Write a sequence for this structure.
């Protein structure tokens, strides 16, 4: 178990009664925060329950590929039961191994971007060159002033950590979530960013304007894809509250 103190974003911290920091507790693959002495789930933990058909299909495809790759080294040789068992074992472990590598790469990318935004000099490893070049291309097209990076947001029943919060020239704010996935998976990503924006909006009570944005950064080649959340607030709010209620019901049933 890892417990950390996470600084709260500037907009919420500067409200009346706003917290300066909250605790983040990570237990294996689950995470919760402590807000006003109460444990609340993280947004990403709640959304682990979200159906992921594309991920399931990828797992199956990668498993089949792993069997073919393993057996290709034994072409022309008799196939023994032991060889088949090893091939099946590879089909089970290869997708998990590749998924972990992708997750680790995404974590590294988030850390590098956060450090660079904070003004630190970073050394980019070769495997993250395309991601960082994609980030720089996105940054070049925007006119934003950094407010926060890697800070917490919180509400009465959940909390999370945002990638970055910026201020536009017109005085409004933009909350950005970086993704290094193959595509922008909607509505899951939309709901995640909506929950962050909603937590801040509830605190500031309309005193500031804040939008959410998903930015997918290319891993194979420098490219970026942007999705700004604007006209889907009502439907996303229903989806998020339903996911939160489902998570709470499952926890209560344990």
């Amino acid at each position: 178990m890892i417990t950390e103190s996470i600084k709260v974003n500037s907009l919420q911290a500067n409200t009346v009664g706003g917290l300066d920091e909250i605790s983040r507790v990570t237990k294996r693959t689950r995470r919760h925060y402590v807000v006003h002495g109460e444990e609340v789930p993280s947004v990403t933990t709640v959304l682990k329950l979200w159906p992921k058909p594309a991920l399931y299909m990828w797992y199956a495809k990668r498993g089949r590929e792993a069997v073919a790759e393993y057996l290709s080294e034994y072409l022309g040789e008799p196939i023994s039961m032991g060889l088949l068992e090893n091939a099946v074992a590879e089909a089970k472990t290869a997708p998990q191994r590749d998924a972990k590598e992708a997750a680790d790469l995404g974590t590294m990318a988030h850390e590098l971007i956060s450090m660079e935004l904070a003004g630190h000099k970073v050394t980019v490893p070769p495997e993250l060159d395309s991601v960082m070049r994609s980030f720089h291309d996105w940054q070049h097209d925007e006119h934003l002033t950094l407010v926060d990076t890697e800070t917490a947001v919180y509400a009465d029943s959940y909390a999370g950590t945002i990638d970055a919060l910026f201020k536009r020239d017109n005085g409004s704010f933009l909350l950005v979530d970086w993704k290094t996935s193959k595509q922008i998976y909607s509505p899951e990503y939309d709901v995640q960013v909506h929950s962050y924006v909603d937590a801040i909006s509830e605190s500031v009570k309309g005193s500031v304007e804040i939008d959410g944005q998903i930015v997918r950064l290319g891993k194979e080649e420098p490219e970026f894809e942007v999705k700004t959340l604007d006209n889907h607030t009502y439907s996303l709010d229903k989806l998020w509250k339903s996911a939160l209620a489902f998570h709470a019901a499952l926890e209560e049933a344990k």
